[in-house]
Amino acid sequence: MPLLTTGSLTGVRARAPASSANLGPGFDTLAVALDCYVSVEVEPAASLQVHSEGEGSGLFDDASHLAARVVADVLGHDRVRVTVRSEIPVARGLGSSAALAAAAAAAAGAADPFAVAAAYDGHPENAAASVFGGLVTATTVESRPVHAPLPLHDDLAFVAIVPDRNLATPEARRLLPESLARADAVFNLGRMGLLLAGLADPAYLVPEATADRIHQPARTALFPEAPGLLDGLVDAGALAASWSGAGPTLVGVVRAGSAAVVRNRAEAALAASGVSGRVLALEVDRRGLVYGDEAEVRL
Length: 299
Known about the structure:
31% of the residues lie in helices and 28% in strands. The protein has helices spanning 66-75, 96-107, 113-121, 124-132, 169-173, 182-200, 216-219, 226-235, 259-273, and strands at residues 12-22, 26-44, 49-54, 80-86, 135-141, 144-150, 156-163, 240-243, 250-255, 277-282, 290-291. Strands 1, 2, 3, 4, 5, 6 and 11 form a seven-stranded mixed β-sheet that branches. The chain has a four-stranded antiparallel β-sheet with strand order 8-9-7-10, with helices on one face. Helix 2 packs across helix 4 (124-132), helix 3 (113-121) packs antiparallel against helix 4 and helix 8 packs antiparallel against helix 9. The two termini are 32 Å apart.
């Protein structure tokens, strides 16, 4: 990958939030930032040093680490110590790669962390959520990533079922259809309209708003328990539920005041399914990237 921008290094820490993309019908276009974080600290060093803690720690503590590669590209050299601290589950559909690339680019002084993260991750919607926070739409226009914020009601939060299994995005994409019938395309457009209206005003949010015919049915082959767990989230009190990104994480949109109750009920549904994992109650992160002392992640 070519050098995307240059910068000088004084020692910086940056933090980026996780994200949940697609949200059902918004395939590769919608994402929301969630309050689960990764921080990257970059300091001068005689040679490359990589240290990671938390989720994904110790897997690639060398030049192959995504954060190390991003930092080296931004700076034009690798005479740095890169420290990564992460709460974001890896390969679970919560935008861990986009968040890590965004935090690394920001810590290295990139002029446009969004462009860097989108280039590395390949998903501008995840990158936009991690950089700018809130609910966003994003795509690529003439080879450059573009994004726009979308209305998201203050009374909404998310409950995430995070199974103890990996589901890599490339594997999940291989199952997707090469083309769609017009009826399926219209179906998704209609559901996305309902979804956006409901996220702006929960009075309009109905379970059918997260229905999809592009990716969720195909991916069920990799996670056959998913439909039952999605129904379980709605039965637990979620207003609507969907896959998070390529999965296997599943998310329910909830009223903020009911998040704890929905989480507890979803834990019971997960246990009854026989799938091991955990359930998280997550608030929306509306800030995106932050720097310095605010960027600390306490594990």
